[in-house]
Write a structure and sequence with these properties.
The chain is mostly helical and about 325 residues long. Helices cover about 65% and strands about 0% of the residues.
């Protein structure tokens, strides 16, 4: 599928626009969220904690058979852990991005924009952690995987293209999931969760846009071998990150005694769960195709990992609107 690219401003102008957007529209987690208002109270009997249909675990026979109080408990745990996973990825991004910008020459507009983004990510960490604190749940986040990823990801900043591919691998699944919830209606979620997701979606759009722009620009100078190696690595990085972010950690399985059949059904053997994983990377497939990372020589990896599929015609195109590839 070919994409007709609209006329674009030069890279410096686009960065200036993103930087000005960060100045003109930004959020403070302790100003723009009224944590202590009655409507933001977190109640453990709130039926809005029940997992939404979009969550693959919600479609398992095991989850459907549970009484509502147990569904609420599990839903609250899943959302809280996703917030913790989100802030852990934000922390990794900040570490790697700081290492990257220190190497930039004076007057490089990437320096200013990246600092704006890191400032926003710090606010996201505050916001996600406050949500975790308010639930009172001791969730593990990525658990042991965080220690592994935290030792590797910041080192990738030495190769900025690979680093920002890894950044996208963390940002895209969360953003896709939250936007799907937004389309279904944030009123289906507890009020503090809905507000946190609204803020995150609004600001994350800039961050994802920058990562796409950065990768596209840097790859203009890549040779055929570099493109092939990155093209082979890209789907592997995406699939690993998607599993970490959208899956269930070992602590969850033990705490709720989740049967193996339910885990297999939810992560990632059922048609719905596989569709969720594929849909999470439609924008990345578009980027990969436009930058010649997704080619006949690399497409087989996407298929092998079951994250192949149609590309998006525009950013965040709903899955139901997409044309078959």
């Amino acid at each position: 599928m070919t994409h007709t690219a609209p006329a674009k401003a030069d890279y410096a102008t686009e960065l200036q626009t993103l930087s000005e957007g960060s100045v003109n529209l930004h959020f403070d987690p302790f100003v723009d969220i009224d944590w202590d208002s009655p409507e933001f109270e977190i109640r453990r009997d709130d039926p809005r904690w029940v997992l939404v249909d979009y969550d693959p675990l919600s479609q398992t026979d095991w989850y459907k058979s549970l009484p509502q109080d147990k569904q609420i408990e599990i839903g609250m745990w899943r959302v809280t852990n996703m917030a913790r996973v989100g802030l852990e990825f934000e922390a990794l991004l900040i570490r790697g991005m700081m290492q990257f910008i220190i190497t930039l020459q004076h007057q490089n507009p990437e320096f200013r924009y990246c600092l704006h983004e890191m400032t926003e990510e710090c606010n996201h960490i505050q916001m996600f952690q406050e949500l975790v604190n308010r639930t009172g749940l001791n969730v593990p986040g990525l658990g042991i995987h965080y220690k592994i990823v935290s030792a590797i990801l910041p080192l990738l900043a030495a190769d900025p293209v690979t680093f920002f591919i890894a950044v996208l691998a963390g940002e895209e699944p969360i953003d896709h999931f939250q936007k799907a919830l937004a389309r279904a209606g944030f009123d289906r979620l507890p009020t503090p969760v809905a507000r946190v997701f609204q803020i995150h979606v609004a600001e994350e759009a800039r961050h994802i846009s920058f990562a796409h722009m950065f990768i596209t620009r840097r790859l203009e100078r890549a040779n055929a071998v570099q493109r092939l190696l990155l093209g082979l690595a890209l789907p592997i990085i995406m699939r690993l990150a998607g599993g970490f972010i959208l899956g269930a950690p070992r602590g969850f399985r033990r705490q709720f005694n989740v049967p193996r059949t339910a885990l297999r059904q939810a992560f990632w053997r059922s048609p719905q769960s596989r569709k969720l994983m594929r849909d999470s990377y439609s924008d990345v497939r578009t980027l990969a195709e436009d930058t010649r990372l997704l080619t006949p020589a690399t497409r087989w990896v996407w298929k092998l990992l079951r994250i192949d599929g149609p590309t998006a015609r525009y950013r965040s195109e709903p899955a139901d609107f997409r044309r078959a590839s």
